[in-house]
Specification:
The chain is mostly helical and about 140 residues long. The protein is built from four helices and two strands.
Length: about 140
C-alpha cells in the first residue's frame, strides 16, 4: 500500500482534492481483487498482458493506454491499478523466465509501465494525482 496526499492540511477541503469513501473502496478492490471477491479484474489484466507480450523476448508495452479514469480526484484508483498491473507484469515475466535465468533479477524497461491516464477538471487535483503517482 502507499500513502496518499490530499487537500485539507494546507488548503481548504475541496471535493476534487480529497479521497472519497467510494474512491477508497475502489482503490482497495483494485489493489487486491481476489480479496475483494472480484477475480475478474486480475483475469482481464493477465489476458491483456499475455496479448501484449506474445513472446518472452519482447518486454516493452505498446503505447496505447490500458485505462482512463475521468474525474480521478487524487488518483487513488489509478495509482492502485497501475501498481496492481505492474505486479501482474512482474509475475508474468517471472513465470516465463528460463531456469538458468532465475538467479538474474528481472528488470522491466521504463516503457513497460502501464499507460494509465488519470484526469480531473480541477488543476489542484491534477497536482495531487502527479504527487500520488510519484509517491507510489
Amino acid at each position: 500500500f502507499f500513502d496518499l496526499e490530499q487537500d485539507g492540511f494546507l488548503r481548504r477541503f475541496d471535493t476534487a482534492g480529497v479521497l472519497w469513501p467510494a474512491g477508497y473502496l475502489l482503490a482497495l478492490c483494485i489493489s487486491a481483487p481476489i480479496l475483494c471477491n472480484i477475480p475478474e479484474i486480475s483475469l482481464v489484466v493477465r489476458q491483456h498482458i499475455q496479448q501484449q507480450y506474445p513472446t518472452t523476448s519482447s518486454n516493452s508495452l505498446r503505447t496505447k493506454p490500458v485505462a482512463i479514469e475521468i474525474g480521478a480526484g487524487i488518483g487513488a484508483a489509478s495509482v492502485a491499478f497501475a501498481n496492481m498491473f505492474q505486479e501482474e507484469q512482474q509475475r508474468f515475466f517471472q513465470s516465463k523466465q528460463k531456469i538458468s535465468d532465475i538467479q538474474k533479477p528481472l528488470i522491466l524497461h521504463e516503457q513497460s509501465r502501464p499507460a494509465i491516464i488519470a484526469a480531473d477538471f480541477a488543476s489542484h487535483a491534477l497536482a495531487l494525482i502527479i504527487t500520488n503517482s510519484q509517491r507510489a
